[in-house]
Amino acid sequence: MKCIFTLLCVLSAAAVWAGNFDISANGTELKATYNGKPLIVKNQVNTGSLPFGGDGAESSFTVVNGNKVFNVWNKNADRSIRQEVAVAEGGKHLDITYLSEHRAFQDNPVRIMKIELPFELFAGAEYTARVGRASRVKTVTGKIAPDAKGSLLPANCRQVAFSGSAIGNFVIDFNVLGVGDFISDYSNGSFKGFGAMIRNGNTVELSSGTTLPVYGGHVGAKWRFYEGTDSDFDRYHAITHIPYTGEFTQKRLYSFGDNEVGKIYTSIKNAPFSDQAQAGWIGQKPSTVADSPQGAYYGAAFGKDGVFKISNLNPGLYWITLGIGNHRGVNNKFSVTLNGNKIAENLSVKKGNAVVVQKALFIDSDTAEIKLEGNYLISTLGLAAVMSNYEDHTIRRGPWVVDGYEPATVFRNEHYKAPAKFPVSVQTFALPVPGKEAIGKAKPLLELGSAGNPDRPNMRWRYSAKISAWAAGNQGTLIEYAEPEAMAKRLDELKSKGVNAVLVSGMLSRHTYPAQLKRTEEFFKRLAQEAHKRNMKVIDHQDLTLLWNIDCGYRVGSERIGQVNIARDSMQPAPQLCLVNPEFKKFYQEYLVNFVKNTNIDCIMIDEVNFYPHSCGCGHCRNEFFKDTGWHLPVNELDKRLGDKSNELWKRFLIWHKQQVGKWWRDMKLAVRKVNPDFSFMAYSTHYGFTHNWSSLSLALDLTEFARGVDFLGTEIMTRDVLMSHRALVPFRKMKEILTHEYNAPIFGLVYSENKWDLAYFGWAVNNMNGQSTWETIMACPQGKSDYPAFKENMNYAESKRVAEAALLYPIQSREWNQFIGMLGELMGTAQTLEQLHIPYKMVGDMSLNEKSLKPFKLLFVGAANCLSDAQLKAIKEFARNGGNVVTSATAGTQNEVGIIRSEWGFADVYGYEVNPIRFKKLQSADTAEGDFAAAYSLLPSADSKYGSCKVLHYADKAKKYPLVLEKSYGKGKFIHHAGFIGAPLSEGEYGYNKKYTFKLDTVLDKFYKELMKKEFANADSAFSTDAPEKVYTTWYRSKDAEIIHLLNATGAKPQLGQVLRAFCPEEPFPTVEQDINVSIPAPASVSEVYAVSPDFAGRKALKYTRNGDKLNVVLDKGLLKAYTIIWIKK
Question: Domain 804-1020 maps to which CATH number in 2.60.40.1120, 3.40.50.880, 3.40.449.10, 1.10.530.10?
Answer without folding.
Answer: 3.40.50.880
